[in-house]
Specification:
This protein has one domain. The protein is 40% helix and 31% strand. It has one helix and two strands. It has a two-stranded antiparallel sheet with strand order 1-2. The chain is elongated and about 65 Å long.
Length: 70
């Protein structure tokens, strides 16, 4: 899973003009240090990772069921 963030920086110019810079960055989620998985968010990070594995396992079973029907 990834977490994507968009940052917009607006620099005003003379009159009504200006410059706008947009940055779009994705990173793996959750990370142990930047998302505080080592401290207060330990339960959330464990549940999120378990849910991801369960989803992938469910997709695998669905693919096997589809193949068995064919």
């Amino acid at each position: 899973m990834e977490r994507c963030e968009r940052q917009v920086v607006k620099i005003p110019g003379p009159g009504n003009g200006g410059f706008e810079y947009t940055d779009y960055e994705c990173r793996p989620f959750p990370r142990s240090v930047s998302d505080s998985c080592d401290d207060e968010n330990r339960f959330f990070c464990a549940a999120w990772t378990s849910a991801q594995y369960s989803t992938e396992l469910g997709i695998g079973f669905a693919a096997l069921a589809l193949v068995s029907l064919l």
